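REVIEWER CHECKLIST
Item 1: Sequence provided? yes
Item 2: Single chain? yes
Item 3: Sequence as submitted:
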Amino acid sequence: MDLQENVIKRVVAEGNLQIKMDNTTSIQGDSGILEDDFLTITGNTIIFNEKGKILCKKAILNTKTNDIRVYESKGVINKN
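Item 4: Structure as written out by the authors:
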């Protein structure tokens, strides 16, 4: 973790990373880097919600807007 003037600027996490975005959506991966407002999750990355799963190599979460960019993905979507 990098601190600048008591503000976290960068955090690196490795091994079984799990991020819960809200009551229905979570992201799982092998490692992650939080820099400014962006969390990059890599390695066996899976995004879960009530509609299904997205499997990808990398996902970037904007922590201010909760928008997610997904790279090299495939998905399983439930029919409701």
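Item 5: Key structural point noted by reviewer: The beta strands are 2-4, 7-20, 26-35, 38-49, 52-62, 68-77.
Item 6: Recommendation: ____
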